[in-house]
Design brief:
Oligomer: heterodimer
Largest interface: A-B, 22 and 20 residues
Distance between the termini of chain A: 40 Å
Largest sheet of chain A: 7 strands, mixed
Strand content of chain A: 15-25%
Strand order of the largest sheet of chain B: 3-2-1-4-7-6-8
Strand order of the largest sheet of chain A: 3-2-1-4-5-7-6
Distance between the termini of chain B: 21 Å
Number of helices of chain B: 9
């Protein structure tokens, strides 16, 4: 559980309307018994803030976040932290998560924003990514190596890919953690031209962990 | 005619499981049926039971290692070369049949393979762990035609098999998260199934109303029929001969 103090710190980073929508989503989850309260709380933990901010900052520094950019966020979860950062830059977001209740709440949180959220398994179901300039997946540890992701042929030529993984073994559904940045790079599509790569230290539940990130093009 | 099938491979269960299941079927399914066992070791199995070669139904190793656990069931029930157009009932070895199933099996014509919806499983837990560790369906009693099962077979063993093996690992979870549109469910209002492992007091109805008790220990938790005590063991052992 995040303590009151750190939740407060996190919430202060968001604009008041977003905070209100998050609270609304919590209420909705409770009222409709969606079982997503803990996950909503987890989604605004410090490690989430750090890793999603890191992704948005690197994309921005590389000059990829422009007004009108279409961004696909794979296995997006609620988008609580990443979406506001992308919306702030004028991006259109296409979010995909397999959990229908997560999708329902994400839709509520980003209602009337430039977000299209769908409940999809990003590996086996059709996802509308043909017009997306950037493809983000910060959940690579939850799936097979992205080298085998079957949707590359569907992606726009020149699309930019930002992928993250980590070495947090033992966390529920972390089925493909990596030990190092080079291991993570080895999991990329053979034609992926790595434009940027890096790692950061994170503390997760008192343990030192590492998160890895690559930005590339095919 | 109904084809009743079961699978026995490896050394988790002995031939007595197959024979006792056959004897339960003889008592509680009073219509014409053939009983098959797909196995890698037929020693000790009642000669009235038709033996199929388990290796014909073995699921492939996936690209990243591992298989979709128990997906052999779908290979078996979709074998039109053996079952033609007749209905196929797949039973797990670790079940107890408690009441007559004849009427149910004769009157039910599944359009898609019929699975068990685990009414006893905590819905909250399922929602909280969606896509990960939980699953609300169970393949201990599948009723289908080979044709309907073939559609499911093609989904499971198609282009996403490696992904299914890596991400979901077991048949029930693949169905739950990627093939729910291809199955239907037995009617829970008929009090057909309950799990031996559910807590006392959690039963929807009186236990004696149910037709089948599931043990569902293939995932390595709980006790198997030869390990339990009390009524279940006594009941199971009463099917040494019918």
């Amino acid at each position: 559980m995040v303590g009151q103090k750190s939740i407060g710190k996190v919430l202060m980073k968001f604009d008041p309307e977003h905070v209100q929508r998050l609270v609304g989503a919590c209420r909705y989850s409770l009222k409709h018994n969606l079982g997503k309260l803990t996950e909503l709380e987890d989604s605004i933990r410090n490690n989430q803030i750090i890793s999603k901010t890191w992704a948005a900052e690197v994309l921005d520094q590389l000059g990829f976040l422009k007004q009108g950019t279409h961004v696909a966020v794979l296995a997006s979860w609620f988008g609580t932290v990443l979406y506001p950062l992308l919306l702030e830059k004028g991006c259109y977001i296409h979010g995909f998560d397999m959990d229908p209740n997560v999708t329902l709440l994400a839709k509520r949180i980003f209602e009337k924003k430039d977000v299209v959220q769908k409940s999809r398994d990003i590996w086996t179901q059709h996802i509308e990514i043909e017009d997306c300039d950037i493809i983000i997946n910060t959940s690579c540890e939850h799936m097979p190596p992205m080298s085998d992701w079957p949707k590359y042929p569907q992606c726009k030529s020149g699309a930019v890919y930002l992928f993250q993984s980590n070495n947090m073994y033992g966390v529920k559904d972390h089925i493909n953690c990596v030990d190092s940045l080079s291991d993570f790079i080895d999991q990329q599509h053979p034609m992926m031209d790595i434009l940027w790569s890096g790692e950061e230290q994170l503390v997760y539940e008192g343990n030192e962990t590492k998160r890895f990130m690559i930005v590339g093009q095919i | 005619m109904i084809n009743i099938v079961c699978l026995k491979w490896g050394d988790k269960y002995g031939p007595e499981y197959v024979n006792k299941l056959f004897n339960q079927c003889k008592k509680f399914i009073n219509t014409e049926f053939e009983f098959y066992c797909a196995t890698d070791n037929p020693v000790g199995i009642n000669p009235q039971i038709q033996i199929l070669d388990f290796h014909c139904y073995e699921s492939p190793e996936s690209k990243w290692g591992g298989k979709v656990f128990t997906s052999e069931k779908v290979k078996l029930i979709s074998d039109e070369s053996i079952f033609d157009n007749d209905r196929v009932l797949l039973l797990d070895l670790d079940i107890l049949i408690l009441k007559d199933l004849t009427q149910y099996l004769l009157s039910y014509n599944p359009i898609k393979p019929a699975w068990i919806l685990n009414w006893w499983q905590d819905e909250e837990r399922f929602k909280k762990n969606y896509g990960t560790i939980t699953c609300r369906i169970n393949a201990s009693f599948i009723y289908s035609t080979p044709q309907a099962a073939a559609v499911l077979h093609d989904r499971i063993f198609g282009e996403n098999y490696d992904y299914f093996a890596f991400k979901f690992k077991a048949l029930d979870k693949v169905i739950q998260y990627n093939a729910l549109d291809l199955v239907e469910f037995h009617d829970n209002n008929l009090n057909l199934f309950y799990s031996y492992n559910i807590k006392e007091g959690d039963y929807k109805s009186d236990m004696k109303d149910y037709h089948i008790c599931l043990f569902n220990n293939s995932h390595g938790t709980g006790k198997d029929l030869h390990e339990v005590d009390g009524w279940a063991k006594e009941y199971w052992e009463s099917f040494n001969e019918v």
